[in-house]
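Quick question, first post here. What does this chain look like in 3D?
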Amino acid sequence: MEICKDAVVKGIGAPDESELALINALARRELEADEVYTFALRLCDNDIDRDFERFDDGTLDELATMFVGVSGVFDHQWSARGQTARIYRAEVVGGDGTLTADGRPCRFLKGWAYMMRTEENASLIAEIDGGIKREVSVGCEVKQVICSVCGRPLEECPHEKGEEYGGQVCHGVLTGAADAYEWSFVAVPAQRRAGVIKSAGRRLEDEARLGRKYLKSLRHEMVRLAGIAEPEAGHALLEKVAGKLDEEELLGLIKVYREKADRLLGPQVQLSYGKDAVPREIADGAFLI
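> Answer (accepted):
Ran it through. Tokens below.
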């Protein structure tokens, strides 16, 4: 059973002098220590998550600076009314010997957040202290998702996330931080230890993922049929060609190669019942002694 206590929100309470200085750098007026409540949280890490994706180490470092000043919400619902806290410090933590699922040194992005001690926030503070509000996830944008197997952009390569290739489980490597939008208290995070929603456009990403999966299936089928029809072309070359084709081009080639493959692999007729009768001495020749 995997247990990781760092994957929760931890209440701290009142900030010390150095922490308060960082908070006041974001506040519109000078705040006193007894006016604010602080807590630490694990935002995201470089381990493979439930979506078979992980952050590149360099991307975590880039996100550390981007998340300072970012607001916290609930269930990724963007509204001013839902903003409850703000991150005032963030850094990448690691080096304790913990390994990721694929054997790399585990690193995670840790944030420190503050909220105002108001009547409205009293119940939330109590839930954090009581361990009720624990799981968090982040909304951010990355520049590209790289296939862990071949190193190509995932939408262009023939590999499928979650499938095994040569003993290696394919996953997407989230590379190049573009922006950090928000972090959120959630019920079930995507990452096993902290939870993450990688993009603020996640709905669009979910829809786009279906389209990419469809294109991958077309590319697989084109390569399969072309390998039958033109085996001299070689599998690697066919995969490279298929990766550059769009839906219309793939469908056209699939039709051509399927017809050619059907001709090559079609069943051969062993008995003939044509109009022209075969002379008996020829038809029975194989049985005569």
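The chain has two domains: 5-200, 209-265.
Residues 209-265 form one domain.
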